[in-house]
Amino acid sequence: MATRQSSTIIYPVLGSSWDLWFLRVAGHGLGNCFYTYFHALVLAEQSGAKLIAPPWFSLKIGPLLRGSASKRLYFRMFRALKHDIDGGAKILALLRRYRQRVIVRVGTIGAPVIQPGKLNFVVSDRFTFEGLHAHRNLIRERLVGIVKDPIPRDHAWGKGNYLAMHVRMGDFAEATNLNLVKRGEANLRIPLNWYLNLTKALRERHPEKPIYLFSDGDEASLRPLLDQGASFYRSGSDMTDLLMMSGASILVGSNSTYSRWAAFLGNMPSFWLETEVPMEKPSDPEVPVTLVPLDADPTALGKSP
């Protein structure tokens, strides 16, 4: 591990309409935030810089208006570690160097470079795992260290004797044109029938393993999956749910960065919707990733890239 240099500081800009340093207004969700935060962590480790604890707390009106089970505020969900800059020291560091800050962009051409002795604001131009795979253990250790919410009992990355299925609904719109889903249009729901076909196939292949359903949808909307033997897992915490997903031996992901992070952390075999837009693989090269067409028959589990 690199020696810490107090003169070089990194601030992960998690993304929001307004970043007030202790609070974000209309901020990104957990999955998108993790890209910036963990890239900043890796850059701090590589450069010997100190990391400023970001404002996880985010005020969003959408989940409140929709009556979602998760309000996605992330209030008091994370803690700063002892080597992080937080509290009053955080405000002083940001105020003293704010005008001399430099912007370090992740996801552009070339590897991001930290400027020594500067206040480096790390921002994500593209949400990517590029550069993170070699640091998976560091990222796992940091995540478990900062999370305050309960960690699932007997949690083991990608080794649990169960399957996880993530069905994103909530702020994702129901597609009126399925061609848009096939093209990989962002923020659209995958039709429930796609999950239903996978549930049938996986139940047949792995009858000994329960399928846990992770979703912001209600029971009535997800009844077809429940009738096929899937069961809800709802801890009341977005982070506990994510850790539980990351412990599954097989994951069925949604069109969401939240489930992609579960696959990255768990590094387990996974199933995803096949679209015209190439998907960045969240797991290691040797770990199977299966792409399943939208209209796949329940007996066909798609093709691996």
Task: Tell me what you see in this structure.
This protein is of the alpha/beta class and 305 residues long. The chain has 2 domains: 142 residues; 133 residues, Glycogen Phosphorylase B (Rossmann fold). The strands form 3 sheets. It has a 6-stranded parallel sheet with strand order 10-9-8-11-12-13. The protein has a 4-stranded parallel sheet with strand order 4-1-7-6, with helices on both faces. Strand 11, helix 9 and strand 12 form a beta-alpha-beta unit. Helix 1 packs across helix 9.
Summarize the topology.
Layout: E1 5-12, E2 18-19, E3 24-25, H1 30-47, E4 49-51, E5 58-59, H2 62-66, H3 87-97, E6 102-106, E7 119-124, H4 136-146, E8 160-167, H5 178-182, H6 192-205, E9 211-215, H7 223-227, E10 231-232, H8 238-246, E11 248-252, H9 257-266, E12 270-273, E13 289-292
Helix pairs in contact: 1-9, 8-9
